[in-house]
Amino acid sequence: MKKILSILSLALVALAFVSCSKNSPEGVVQEYFTHVQKGQYEEAIDLLYFKKGLSDKDKEQLVSMFREKGSKEYDKKGGISEVVIDNVQMQEDGNAALVNYTIKYGDGSAKSDKNKVVKVDDKWLLDSGK
Fold first, then answer.
1. I need a surface site. Which of 57, 78, 91, 110 has the fewest CB within 10 A?
2. Helices 2-19 and 25-37 meet at what angle, rounded to 10?
3. What is the model's pTM?
């Protein structure tokens, strides 16, 4: 039963992921959490924007940190079952947006959050704030 629920949860995340274009403010948020849920931290980090760039060494450190801390946090809550986009507030110039979303976990809990996303070279990325 637990295995079936896990498969259904991943299917829901995949469906939500497919339902919005990857190259949109809401799509990049969905894609980021899909990578995080699968433990694909390198791919998740590639979806983050850093004003000063990110060296290979910095990226390795971030991946290591995600593996140690991030996976434990999500595992504690039964993984991510769904990410729901609640609202997207696009800036007038069309190059940035604020995405409000709710992460639903396998244990039934949920957390609402928001993230600024920016358009860099025609690709949407989550603003790391750094």
1. 57
2. 160
3. 0.79
